[in-house]
Amino acid sequence: MRLPISLKIFSITMALLVLMVVVTWLSVLNFRQLNNQVRALSDWYLPLQQQVASVEILIRQQIVHMERVMAGMEVARPDPEFLANESNGFDMRGVNADQIVDSSLRMLGEAQAQKDIELDRPTLAVLGEQLPAIQTARQHFHMTFRLFQIEAQEGTPRSQKIVRETLLREKDTVDIEIGKTIDILNKLTQDTATEAKKEEKRATTLNWIITALATALGFLSAVFFTRSLVGPIKRLLGGTRAVEDGDLEVEI
Question: Do 252 and 239 contact (CB within 8 A), yes or no?
């Protein structure tokens, strides 16, 4: 049984439409995932990374103030105004660092509460534990520096040496905690960026595959329609010529 040409055209047209719907649906899924990765980077991971970098800079500045105070206290005639300015600078940098850590912790809480975006919540939970560790280490460093100043003025050389060694250990502890946090954030951003690139590549590859399938289907449809339409016309013309030539028994 031969199908009417209209039904054939309708069937192939519907197949093309279904293929277009599938392409659109898969593209939406891929680009939604890509958009999720980009939003995670731009809205949460990179701002957190910038804030931790700011904390690191402030603590490095604290260390510079500390070294200036220690050097200023070792001269024959210490300058009280210079020492006071450097000490105040040390305090201000510490306050600013703690404020940024608190802001980062609030940002982490907001990120964990997000429902419309997929985030690496286990890593964010680790960051939620690591950021207070930076703050605690920095505060211990701060208090030890204050103790060193007191010992330098009122203590014995032996006690001053002990506090100085403790101060240097506290400084190293702060460096270690900051380094851990930066490593976590660097891995988080790199993994997210890598995943975003993979999503983009998958979306592009899928679009090319579907486009190739649609092109092949369109080409086969054109060949099919051409044969379906041209074949009967050729038979009709052949039969007409046969009748003109006197063959009245030909069937068209």
Answer: yes
